[in-house]
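Subject: Sanity check before I submit

Could someone independently write out the structure tokens for this chain? I want to compare against mine line by line before I put it in a report. The sequence has 563 residues.
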Amino acid sequence: MTNHITSSVRPAPPVGGFQQIGDRRLFVHRAGSGGPAVVFLPGASAVGLDYLGVQQGVSRFTTAVVYDRGGTGYSDPLALPRTATAVATELHELLGSLDVPAPYVLVPHSLGGFYAHRFAQLYPQEVAGLVWLDAFNRDWDRFLPPAMHLSALERAAPGPEQLEQSRPAVRDMRGELLAGYPAHVREPLIDAHESDAWMRVGIAERSGLAGLAAELRAGPGLPDVPAVALTVLGVDPAQRAQMPQDTVREMLDGRTRMDAALMDSVSYGEQRLLPDTLHHRLCFDRPDAVVRAVRDVLDRVARGENYMITCHDDPRRTVLTISQLAATAGVTVRTVRHYHQIGLLPEPERDASGYRRYSAQAAVDLIRIRTLADAGVPLARIDALLHAEPEEFASAIDDIDAGLQRKIDRLSENRRRIAELAGGERLVLPPEVVAVLERMRGLGVGELRIRLERDAWILMRAMDPQAVARRVREKNAELDDPETTRLFLACDRSADWDPYDPRLDRLIDDLDAWEVAHGRDDSRGTYLKLVSSRISEASPAWQRIIGAVAHRAEQRRSARLDT
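---
Independent answer below. Compare away.
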């Protein structure tokens, strides 16, 4: 069903303003400063200003944006319902036109969950985190009883007579929910919510739920970013009176399991249960829980930036801070900045938090620059060598090596390092680590995993150099064990498997048993978790393996705490 809402009469917003997107205006209200910016996606029958209270709380520590999607609230009218793609691309255009820098923390409520998921599918590199406010999920029908399936919810939408009968109740409810809002915002907002146009818009948006879920199922799951889901366990008394008690229990259980599964699909997902509020009252009864969830996600994003970032356009690329890069290459931060100034080392763009981040390849390039400079090669020639073809580079290396031979013993170390410039691993990593990587190659481990291991070692050496020797011993011991090696190679071969391949189930069982046998449930610190997260992003199958094993370990820890 398509409800064409064509009235051009729209109430004026009491705060905020409009942004032109194409041939229409969208209502938007922005508060606070800093990043990543937090963007609220309203539910059906809700508008951006309904989230003003939680927006004000979030704006105390970062930029917070509320808005009305096209055809709803104070924004210009459009035919409803719309596709999730249309709504997601519209939001992307809006944020770009407002110069709100990516990445964002998306905070969808109710129907907004469909649109947030589609935004993440289309622009995964622009999503830093998620706070799921009792939001819709594309797998809704898989978890909820038939009476609550999306098609059934569409059929249960009220008609014009029911709308008219509910008008007084809607006004009373809005008056209670918005009681804490300033009068100049509260009264106009209540009047607008009571209007026939706004009430019909809410029904029209709900008429396409099943289609939205199908649209999302054709794309990928959520990006692997920090996420918190707030699951509401309260049931509206009117809804409880209309449903059998068994259906109510199935609904609550299904919603709980659905959000839990969603959070299990990412490495840093957490579900929080709220028994003391209702779906439509969440942001009014528990603004503290919403603001706390947003802050916690932002904190996790920030902690992840301090240790490692995965580039979404190349998930195999490890990223270091400038100080870690300098320490890895054995130079000062000032030297790195000097190389930026003269154009010798490319200077990456700043991210949303204002920091520059460097890849493992940048560490290799910096080692090349430093080694050539130590050998007395002029900086101008170094730049040409870095951009030379392999044959030209090798020829130049031979020339430099010949010159070094004419120098006294103090240059002998430089000669050795010049000869090794072709091997990035040997420049950045100590011989014992290179030996581990060569041993893995000898066992038949693929180059994708070798590169991931190499980048992980570079990261460890930058963050905690004292741990390298211990980890080398542990790694060699693991490779000495036939069962461990078998599982390692099995995981390596599974990189290209479908994440739902039944062979993964057996492999997950074997890996979980290995974890228990080796007492690894409680041994994974922050560093290893970050490395596991980066490895999982290189392969959907690996993502499922790591997520499943970590989930089982967490269940065992919880069980021990409960006893």
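---
OP: Matches mine. For the report I'm noting this point. The mean pLDDT is 82.
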